[in-house]
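Q: Sequence in, structure out?
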Amino acid sequence: MNMDVTVPLHGKVALITGGTSGIGLETARVLARNGADIAINGFGSADEIEEIRTSIGATTGRRVEHFAHDLSDYGQASRLVADALAKCEAVDILVNCAGVQHVCDIERFSDDAWNRLIAVNLSAAFATIRSAWPGMKTRGWGRIINVASTLAMRAENQKSAYVASKHGILGLTREIALEGAPLGITCNAICPSWVLTPLVRQQVEAKAKELGLSFEETARTAFLRDLPTRRFVETAEVAATMLFLCSNAAKSVTGAAIPVDGASTVR
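A: Exactly. Output:
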């Protein structure tokens, strides 16, 4: 499914956390096809990372660098932008896509699980935004996109840390939008519903095992039943929204929480 819109991003560098799989990887491909050089952060084997770098580079002609910083470590998260700048000279577009999940009722939710989830989903975004800010301010142009969730606007059982982190991302987005408004820097949040990323696939598989159902039946009855479209959102649809937000056509779109959710939040 090709969701490309012609948005020339030549001369721009996009740093994408969580860029080695799912929404982040598709975003890297779309932004590169539209002219941006790419810095991706994320996990994977050396062979997997090299395949991503070479495939995006070969199909787009753009430069692709990889950074393996562990965003659950605040020190590494804080160094990510500086290390990207050392290789890429600029970070014009920052996409905070890295995320983790832990499903558990509150009385059994461990400190370690809470701290890791808040670190990756929220604190790392603060660290990367703060580090990228001076360069964007100097250039008078910047695009910051935080991947939130429909759970930035509501709650769901057994996801206390995830819901808290995504509500936090939405608040951070709005604050950064205010600070960036006179500087030519926009900051927006994208709020997808169920996207069949590796993270969501793990949740479906765990639920299928619990219910004794097939993957397809579990997805249909436990995950997609509240989506009017009755299908998973595609990574290409989210990436296309990212592309629009990076364009000059979106220079007055800032502080927004944009649902890409199959109408699931309008009920």
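The two ends are 28 Å apart (CA to CA).
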